[in-house]
Amino acid sequence: MSYVMVDIESDGPIPGDFSMVCFGAVLVTQELDTTFYGKLKPISDRFNPDALAVSGFSREETMNFDNPETVMLAFEDWIKTNSKGRPIFISDNNGFDWMFICWYFHHFLGRNPFGFSSRRLSDLYCGLEKDTFAQWKHVRKTEHTHNPVDDARGNAEVLLHMKEEMGLKIALK
């Protein structure tokens, strides 16, 4: 199994009515050097300016991004090329990130290479600490910049820390 840490930026709270602006993925290995980055053209006329501002892009810039189907096909190929065994989706906030990635895969490709489940980094950390309020973001080495590759890399660093320093039993391939 290969763990793929994912982070997305969007211009609103839900896929379909709003758009995924960009996303990043990092294959969780010691090196954290296998990454994917996609920027997607909006699929809706609706957008929340405050949500879009988090990404650092203007609406005009996003209109020139890549066709979502093309990006999702490239991401699927990246997953197949870089994963060993079943790829496992993991993110800091998988209720949000998974919702967009899963919807986009099914909407544009009719399938999702991750299957039907995902993992949440925060829950793993809280479980290891036996504290549902445990804070973990201080463990990141890479600054949280809202560039989704940076953010996914920082979150992958936390997963590696949990394996190496906290005893999480996880097979990373």
Topology:
Elements (H helix, E strand, L loop, with lengths): L1 E9 L9 E8 L7 E5 L9 H7 L3 H4 L5 H15 L4 E5 L2 H16 L8 E3 H9 L18 H19 L7
Parallel strand pairs: 1-4, 4-5
Antiparallel strand pairs: 1-2, 2-3
Overview of this structure, please?
The chain is α/β, with parallel strands linked by helices. The protein has a single domain (2-166), classed as Nucleotidyltransferase, domain 5 (2-Layer Sandwich). It is 40% helix and 17% strand. It has helices at 49-55, 59-62, 68-82, 94-109, 121-129, 148-166, and strands at residues 2-10, 20-27, 35-39, 87-91, 118-120. A five-stranded mixed β-sheet has the order 3-2-1-4-5. Strand 2 and strand 3 form a beta hairpin. The termini are close together.
Instruction: Please give the largest β-sheet.
Output: 5 strands, mixed
Low-pLDDT stretches:
none
CATH class: Alpha Beta
Q: Say what the CATH topology is.
A: Nucleotidyltransferase, domain 5
Number of strands: 5
What does the overall shape look like? globular
Number of separate helices: 6
CATH homologous superfamily title: Ribonuclease H-like superfamily/Ribonuclease H
Order the strands across the largest sheet as they lie in space: 3-2-1-4-5
Protein name: DNA polymerase III, epsilon subunit
Organism: Chryseobacterium rhizoplanae
Domain 3'-5' exoribonuclease Rv2179c-like: 3-159
GO molecular function: nucleic acid binding
